[in-house]
Design goal:
The chain has one domain. 94% of the residues lie in helices and 0% in strands. It is built from 5 helices and no strands. Helix 1 crosses helix 2 (41-65), helix 2 (41-65) packs antiparallel against helix 3 (67-75) and helix 2 crosses helix 5. The longest helix has 38 residues, at 2-39. The radius of gyration is 20 Å and the shape is extended. The two termini are 38 Å apart.
């Protein structure tokens, strides 16, 4: 019974840690988005233009892969996702990648310091 409770506690701890990580990533991505929108309007406009190109690329790829679904996807999914939504998604992915990179670097540094 003790090993069951221990594994249950470890699983719950990992789930809680992952939930906290996701919440932190979303908050940091929103702050980065708001910072760009409020303080760096020119850069924000440029990034919105780039994300519009990414959205157009998605639509073109969908038209090539499945022409019969392209019209439905364009009116529903792609029509609702504007370039600002795609920009927020890309900022979130960047924040997530940077967070994971920082965690990987910290783990390697800690492992190297522990073995020395």
């Amino acid at each position: 019974m003790s090993s069951f409770l221990r594994s249950l506690f470890v699983t719950g701890s990992v789930v809680a840690l992952l939930l906290i990580l996701v919440i932190v990533e979303v908050v940091v991505a929103m702050f980065a988005y708001m910072y760009l929108a409020l303080n760096h309007v020119e850069t924000f406009g440029y990034l919105v233009g780039l994300s519009r190109d990414v959205l157009k690329l998605f639509a073109d790829q969908l038209k090539q892969l499945s022409p019969e679904l392209a019209l439905r996807a364009d009116t529903t999914l792609l029509g609702e996702l504007g370039p600002k939504s795609i920009l927020l998604l890309l900022i979130g992915l960047t924040v997530s990648g940077l967070g994971r990179l920082a965690g990987w670097i910290a783990r390697r540094w800690y492992a190297r310091a522990s073995s020395a």
